[in-house]
Amino acid sequence: MSPLTGVSIRREWALGAATLVILVLISATVVVNGHASRTPTSHSSGKSPSPIAATTPSSTSSRSLTSQQHAELQQSISRMRDLVQVKAATSSLYPAVRAEARQQPDLYAAALVRQLLTQDHRTSRNELLAWVQSESAQSTEPLVVGLTPVDLQSKLAVASVQDGANGPSPVPSQSDWMALARRHGHTTVQISHVTEPVSWASAVANGQITDPGVTARQVDAEVTLHTIDHGKATTARYSMALVVNLEGPPVRGGYGFVAAITYNVAAMGRR
Question: What is residue 42's three-state secondary structure?
């Protein structure tokens, strides 16, 4: 089990500012922590009884929203519409996940998260987002796509890794990315283990999931940020847990990335 305490690392890693306010109302995945629920791309910023997030679907309709939630939903959809459509592309720095890993959800989730979090801030942030788009896949599961308008679902994968409404996000904002570039920042990643969230497995067993290709995985890892500060090489280590939705066989020939669901991270030390 990951030792995450849910402490935000924004001051250390300066991970991204919010681009979407409430994807919980767009993508109807609920994070169960005791009896509390979180947004699909929410991030823990304080202590919680159980730092390991688990996902389970929840039906959501615009009729069930309060007036404030409805207003926030519309604002969030507007922000999503304003996001520039990213053209899918791979590169030598961000190659496609190998075919063998695409046949097994644990292997794919590990490979995806390792590459997503292995970032070279001295290069273009757009190069990483283009790779995310190249790995994206869409689900037909109503309890996964939720209130996401059909014409915006192709943006969901890229949007989800940039959302930081309640804390840090897997991909830093453009300004934070540039700040890390000035410090010669780059990260290395060591995957600890991959698990299927218990609540997701229960939802599947209970027949709540209609899309036979969709699944969820939690990836625990240690991320090390390398920078040069005042001419001295420094490192900072973080423990993180990222929950993702994937779409794969029998709907697709191999697994692809639907969206980031939760991102919990805790500082482990620096030198």
Answer: strand
Token pair in block for residue 187: 């990260």
Structural contact between residues 41 and 33, judged by C-beta atoms closer than 8 angstroms = no
Q: What is the pTM of this model?
A: 0.79
| Residue-by-residue DSSP string for 98-119 | PTTGGGSHHHHHHHHHHHHH--
Beta carbons of 5 and 56 less than 8 angstroms apart:
no
CA distance 184 to 172: 15
Instruction: Let me know how long the chain is.
Output: 271
Output the CA torsion sign for 95, 29, 241, 170: positive
CA distance 2 to 204: 24
- Return the bridge partners of 225, or none: 187, 236
Q: In whole angstroms, what is the distance from residue 239 CA to residue 220 CA?
A: 8
pLDDT tens digits for range 147-176: 788 888 888 999 889 865 556 789 998 999
Q: How would you class 65 by CB atoms within 10 Å of its CB: exposed for 0-12, middle for 13-18, buried for 19 or more? A: middle
Over the stretch 176-216, which tens digit does the pLDDT of each residue have? 999 999 999 999 999 999 999 998 999 899 999 999 999 99
pLDDT at position 199 is 86
